[in-house]
Amino acid sequence: xxxxxxxxxxxxxxxxxxxxHGHPLQLWQWGELKASTGPWTAHRIAVKEDxxxxxxxxxxxxxxxxxxxxxxxxxxxxxxxxxxxxxKVADACAEWCKQHAASVSLKIDPAVESLNLSDSWVKGKxxxxxxxxxxxxxxxxxxxxxxxxxxxxxQYIRKAGRNGVVCRPAVEGDLDALLAIYHDTAANDNFxxxxxxxxxxxxxxxxDVGQLFVAEHEGRILSFLWNITSTNGTAFELWxxxxxxxxxxxxxxxxxxxxxxxxKEKGAxxxxxxxxxxxxxxxxxxxxxxxxxxxxxxxxKPLSHWYHLWNTAxxxxxxxxx
Length: 322
Hints:
Largest sheet: 8 strands, mixed
Shape: globular
Number of strands: 15
Helix content: 25-40%
Distance between the termini: 48 Å
CATH class of the largest domain: Alpha Beta
Organism: Bifidobacterium colobi
CATH topology of the largest domain: Aminopeptidase
Keywords: Acyltransferase, Cell shape, Cell wall biogenesis/degradation, Peptidoglycan synthesis, Transferase
InterPro entries: Acyl_CoA_acyltransferase (IPR016181), FEMABX (IPR003447), PG_Glycine_Bridge_Synth (IPR050644)
Protein name: Peptidoglycan bridge formation glycyltransferase FemA/FemB family protein
Radius of gyration: 20 Å
Order of helices and strands: EHHEEEEHEEEHHEHHEEEHHEHEEH
Number of domains: 2
CATH architecture of the largest domain: 3-Layer(aba) Sandwich
Family: Belongs to the FemABX family.
């Protein structure tokens, strides 16, 4: 017999995620960030079979205009005791969304390389890229360094240290400086940002699951890297940037190496550099990984006869805003 239960306690939920090697975007703090800064409501759903939990998902629910009611998304979820159970966990979470949120669909994009879903699931428009770069953190430190794809990356990690670059955990007083770097990086590389308040909220909410580091030289912040990390699971790069002086001094190389080691020390077994495009940022990421990693991609489960109309409306809107 299968049932779903909504968990209301942060410690209980995060323990459930980490025991099952769930992705850090399934941690309570990520749901709180999305709920406190945008139109989402976070629900944490455990799936039980014969009284024992087999998996679950943090599900973000967003209200839609009439007559669509709502849409649901499990970022990098669901998770399960083992990958073979992901399909039944996904179906149970979808049924919860239909019954309790009146959702037109549930969107999922678990960080796994294979997935067996029931026939009712369809390929969906992605929110996060399926193609990424990842580093195995299970070997010792020397082996991880030796296994970095690029000899140049190893050289620049050492060079930054010789140049006097120092990396350290960020404090709240660093936020103005690092956000200024992020604005410049976004303008140079042409990607959108949230309002600054979003990142300040993240700093307040993440606590010990957030790993934010800065690289500095003679007291000047040159680069930052901000990860969210689950014990026994994954360190996931969220945001980062580097200024021109930081590029010259190779600060971003030493900073990434510092973040990799910190993730390993925390207990993460995988370091996910979060998405590859055909751009300079992706070229930099691939200096650290031997080959791309391909997750299964994004799937939708239609839960209402309004699903196809909603998808059509989204496609029309996307064409109009090109």
